[in-house]
Automatic annotation (TrEMBL):
Protein name according to UniProt: Dihydrodipicolinate reductase N-terminal domain-containing protein
InterPro entries: DapB_N, NAD(P)-bd_dom_sf
Lineage of origin: Bacteria, Pseudomonadati, Pseudomonadota, Alphaproteobacteria, Parvularculales
Domain Dihydrodipicolinate reductase N-terminal: 13-78
Pfam family, one: DapB_N
The organism of origin for this protein: Hyphococcus luteus
Any GO BP: lysine biosynthetic process via diaminopimelate
Listed GO MF terms: 4-hydroxy-tetrahydrodipicolinate reductase
Entry keywords, A to Z: NADP, Oxidoreductase
Superkingdom to which the source organism belongs: Bacteria
Length: 354
């Protein structure tokens, strides 16, 4: 950063990920907290420092969009909870952009070339109106494929196929409504339902992660024929007690979200995200967060994980810290970018389809 003036940042929402980003903004001398938007009425009027267990900042939380729009700020970090579909927050994001504020989303939005034309036009018009940019940043989506995989293929003479597998241990989710009603754990496994357009988590995750598959194809210069969904729910062989409650024997304890990118008539991109309440269906309970595999010349294998530093105060997870880091590091590029929709990685045809 060359400017001596700190970047003025608005934090939008203070869930677990949002608070991690908010702490990072408060702690950094090159950033200044300009505003804070919250959804919960119990947080309205509270100082951002009190919400994050930091010293008082003088910035009080509001739930009025008009208060946020009136602020002078460089960037809004948009960390709202996932909606019923991937575009659920587009109206709010468009208003923020049109008011002259760059926006970073932590919920996907990493590959605009794959968005439906109507959505792309709407958000691009808002960027043009405000003279600003919009992008997504995070771990996955945002880093694992868009940066790590695309970098790793840079040592290949040719690439035949790529895959990324992620394991998320969900047994520490404490909210029963979220774990059982929204995510579907504990119920009878229904693989037809989880692959339907009626399944709420699938509606959102398909929007987020089909972008990731398209980003992988774009980085390799591949034209996607199709993206196939192969989601599945797996039953527990015994009763499980988890933080959110009890999963009965036979209830869903493991959900695999799986997408296959079809290129040239065959599967060449595989993305898998496992949500696991136990290690029953994991080949190695200690396996890394990500396993990245590239079949090509040469083959490439990367196992990647993140961890909390020893002695770090608080309970923020390593994943939450890493998302906040990805967002902080994206801010300078976003501010300098020409107005418009900014992919986490630009499509750059490079490899032949051998």
């Amino acid at each position: 950063m060359t400017s001596t003036q700190p970047h003025r940042i608005i934090q939008w929402a203070t869930g677990a990920m949002g608070k991690s980003c908010l702490r990072a903004v408060i702690d950094r001398p090159d950033m200044e907290l300009a505003g804070l938007y919250v959804y919960g009425a119990d947080k309205v009027g509270k100082d951002a420092g009190d919400i994050t267990r930091r010293d008082k900042t003088g910035v009080l939380a509001t739930n009025r969009m008009e208060d946020i729009l009136a602020l002078d700020a460089d960037v809004v970090i948009h960390a709202a909870r996932l909606g019923a579909d991937h575009a659920a927050h587009d109206d709010d994001i468009a208003r923020l952009l049109a008011s002259g504020k760059n926006v970073i989303s932590i919920n996907g939005n990493t590959f605009p070339p794959h968005w439906p034309q109507k959505r792309r036009d709407k958000l691009a018009a808002a960027c043009a109106a405000g003279g600003v940019s919009f992008q997504g940043a995070g771990l996955n989506p945002g880093f694992a494929v868009e940066k790590l995989l695309s970098t790793a293929t840079g040592i290949c003479i040719s690439v035949d196929s790529v895959s990324l597998e992620e394991v998320v241990l969900t047994d520490q989710i404490a909210n029963p409504e979220y774990a059982f009603k929204l995510l579907g754990f504990g119920g009878e496994p229904d693989n037809d339902f989880v692959n339907s357009d009626e399944c709420a988590p699938a509606m959102t995750l398909n929007g987020m992660f089909e972008d990731v598959v398209a980003a992988a194809a774009g980085s390799l210069g591949w034209a996607l024929d199709d993206i196939r969904r192969e989601h599945r729910m797996l039953p527990s062989s015994k009763e499980l007690t988890v933080k959110a409650g009890t999963i009965p024997e036979g209830g869903a304890c493991h959900i695999d979200w799986r997408w296959r990118g079809v290129v040239g008539g065959r599967d060449r991109i595989f993305l898998s995200i496992a949500w696991a309440m136990s290690g029953e269906y994991l080949s190695d309970a200690q396996k890394p967060l990500w396993a990245l595999r590239i079949k090509g010349t040469p083959d490439v294998e990367i196992d990647f994980d993140v961890g909390r530093p020893e002695g770090l105060p608080g309970k923020t997870s390593a994943e939450q810290l890493a998302v906040a880091g990805a967002v902080m590091n994206a801010i300078p590029r976003l501010i300098k970018a020409a107005p418009g929709l900014l992919p986490a990685i630009a499509p750059t045809p490079f490899f032949q389809t051998w």
